[in-house]
Amino acid sequence: MCHDLTLHEDDDDVQLLAVPSWTDEPKTQSVTDSTKRESLSWTDSLLDDSDISIATSRLSSTYWNMANNGKRHGGRRRSKDLLKILHQVQADLLVKKELVGQLEKSEDEYTQMRINYEDQLKSLEKHLVDMRYQRDYAIGEIEISDMNNANINSHQDITSTNNSVINKEVDRQHQVTKPRTGNTRKQKLHTTTLSPPAPPPPIGHQRRPLDSIPRQIKEIRLQYEGKIKRLTGESQEWKRKYIQTTSSMTSARTRAEQVVTKLRSTIDQMKTEKKQLQRTMKQDNDRLRDQLATAEQEIQQLKRKEAIHLDARKKWDDTNEQQQAMLKKRNDQTLQVNQQMRQLNTVLRKAANEGTFLNEAALERLLAQASSTSSASPLQRQLSRSPPLPVMD
Question: What is the pLDDT of residue 322?
């Protein structure tokens, strides 16, 4: 039985109830019940000294009390069952609300994970773009260095051809004009002055850096290609994970939305049932209150009738006692009159047998002798007032 419910509480108090703990302890008795039992015990103590009619009225009042107690017990049990159902509905509502909160929390966590994943994916794409830019920049520098090397080689070829042509021309002139040594010396000086600038250092000294540059380029290219492959693989892996996570989040969101929709419909249905239960409980409480008021009125009427019956019985008892006393008195008087009549009959027979003359004085004398031992009766007074009897021959 619930400890938080009283029989006459309002509808607002029912709506604000928390989920109670149910026990099997009996409910404490109210003040009205104790006063009723006190009044009944007082009535029983009064009725213990009464006769069968008062006992019958007591049985009728006890029957009415038992019927009212049965109605009240049935109403309380129904109210207890309805309140238990209401508290169960409230507990289910709390559980469903907790589940909805957990679903919303998981959805927020999924959204945060998605945002973090998108941020990480953007940072990786940016890093990949930077690496590609660095690769293109490195490849552009390598091409520029290749172009410079090609220009140097072409310049060396041109200078070597020019030197060979000049040498051939000098030899030819030397063969034609041997005696002109001075002129040849002047021509040599002229050729030296007209010749291009000194050639660059020997080619052997430049092959080492030129050979190391392609090797470095290949190594850098291989490194960048490895990094690009690795980043591409990571990007594909992250895209695959993103697709999987998105699909799982979509399916989870769909399931969560279905569950939330179902829970909301269930909550609405439970709210409707709660309102119906509250309305039913209110109607039952009102009906029970009316029944209790009617029972109280009937009890008051029965008490008034009982008081009236007690007064009537007391009056009848007093009247009966008076009548009994009067009857006893009349019986005594009748006995006295009968005794006097027997005495009178005896005197009359005796007088008739003796043949005495009976006049009023003689009759009074005989009666006085007959009733010398007893007091005068109303019959004697009546006979004394009556006219004289006729004289018997």
Answer: 94
Domain that residue 354 falls in: 335-385
Q: Look up residue 29 and give its DSSP letter.
A: P
* Residues present in the chain in total: 393
Q: How many structural domains does the chain have?
A: 2
**pLDDT score of 297:** 94
Which token pair is 128?
């990949």
Render pLDDT for 177-204 as a digit per residue (tens, 0 to 9).
444 444 444 444 444 444 444 444 444 4
Mean pLDDT on 21-35? 43
Q: Are residues 303 and 366 in the same domain?
A: no
Is residue 356 located within the same domain as residue 259?
A: no
Angle value at C-alpha 218, between 217 and 222, nearest 5 degrees = 120
**Domain end residue (candidates: 299, 318, 334):** 334
| 367 within a domain of the structure (yes/no) | yes
In a domain, residue 197? The reply is yes
Chain-centroid distance of CA 309 in Å reads: 55
**Number of DSSP helices (H) and strands (E) in the chain, helices first:** 7, 0
The verdict on residue 58 lying in a domain is yes
Q: What amino acid is encoded at 88 in this protein?
A: Q
Q: Which residue has the higher pLDDT, 11 or 138?
A: 138
C-alpha distances in Å from residue 14, one per residue of 83, 268, 275, 276, 357: 9, 19, 11, 13, 110
Lowest mean pLDDT among 148-152, 288-292, 354-358: 148-152
Stretch 357-373: mean pLDDT, rounded?
A: 68
In a domain, 392, yes or no: no
Distance CA 97, CA 104 (A): 11
- What's the token pair of residue 352? 């008739």
Give the integer Cα–Cα distance in Å for 363 and 355: 13
Residues 367 and 284 reside in one and the same domain: no
Instruction: Please give the model's pTM, rounded to 2 decimal places.
Output: 0.29
**How far is it, in rounded angstroms, from Cα 41 to Cα 165?**
155
**CB-CB contact of 174 with 166 (8 Å):** no
291: nearest Cα among 133, 14, 67 = 67
What stretches of the chain adopt beta strand conformation (E)?
none
Per-residue pLDDT, 232: 84
